[in-house]
Design a protein that fits this description.
Length: 289
């Protein structure tokens, strides 16, 4: 275990606003411990001055940074390079130090991909309902297209936002059928087995009784579902899926694996699944207070 901060200690951190309640330091400092890296991870609360934060981090020899709301898209113009996947998603959440500046990656979709693999969820050839068309949904629909989904139904309160995202992602994955719908039109979905991803903040603690669609009829065709929310551990969305006989998972594994992917990029190594499971147990304890 690295106990001493010294002249060789490398620094990583999280840029966003607000960041006071982030679990990222728990994750990355644990990973530094188990991999024997002399590295410390801290939150950087950036209320404004994003460009200065990025340039300052590079000038201070910061090894790498994560980026969270509200800067995942805005940060892209201040980077030396952007990974092609992140450019297609139009969002960056991980910065990796290069010679001339930082390169931006999106590990959100990588985190969801690995989480679904662990949960036994395959998207290939499937019909998928995605709730929401905000920033988180970008990574979700990109993964759907990349994984070879048959048909993706994107439901959102504002139809124009869903249509815009469908049009954008269709250009990268034309073999997948993309349909934009208003959330209140969910009854028009085909009567067949589907997967679902809840990609909004509805139901996030402390508003644990809220749910995007409060109708059991919607959930009867949901075979498996993922809610990107991880607090509470079981959202009302998840409960309604289970009540209709489906399987439901929260977003904790997505949070875990997106962080693991970032740590692997910074340090050019692979984290074993055993350490991921131990870290998951640690995160559950942290959330339980």
């Amino acid at each position: 275990m690295i106990k001493e901060i010294n002249g060789r200690t490398r620094l990583c951190g999280l840029i966003g606003y607000p960041v006071m309640h982030t679990l990222s330091p728990v994750i990355h400092n644990y990973l530094a411990e188990v991999t024997g890296k002399n590295l410390v991870y801290v939150p950087f609360q950036v209320e404004n001055g994003l460009e200065y934060a990025i340039k300052g981090g590079f000038a201070l020899n910061v090894l790498g940074m994560n980026v969270t709301v509200p800067y995942k898209t805005a940060v892209m113009e201040y980077l030396a390079e952007v990974d092609e996947n992140a450019r297609c998603i139009s969002a960056v959440n991980t910065l990796v130090r290069m010679e001339q500046g930082y390169k931006g990656y999106n590990t959100d979709y990588l985190g969801l991909k690995r989480a679904m693999q662990v949960q036994g969820i395959s998207l290939a050839g499937k019909d998928i309902v995605v709730l929401g068309a905000g920033g988180a949904a970008n990574a979700v629909v990109y993964l759907c297209g990349q994984s070879g989904a048959e048909h993706v139904y994107l439901l959102n309160r504002t139809l124009e936002h869903a249509e815009k995202l469908c049009q954008h992602i269709r250009g990268f994955f034309p073999k997948t059928d993309w349909t934009a719908m208003k959330i209140e039109d969910y009854s028009q979905l085909p009567d067949k087995s589907m997967l679902a991803v809840q990609a909004t903040s509805v139901g996030l603690h402390p508003h644990i009784e809220q749910v995007v669609i409060d109708d059991p009829a919607f959930y009867k065709n949901i075979e498996k579902a993922v809610d990107i929310i991880y607090n509470p551990g079981e959202t009302r969305f998840m409960k309604m899926v289970k009540e209709q006989g489906g399987q439901a998972y929260n977003g904790l594994d997505m949070l875990l694996y997106q962080a693991v992917a970032a740590y692997e990029l910074w340090n050019d190594l692979s984290i074993e699944e055993e350490n991921c499971r131990k870290l998951s147990e640690l995160l559950v304890k942290e959330l339980q207070g």
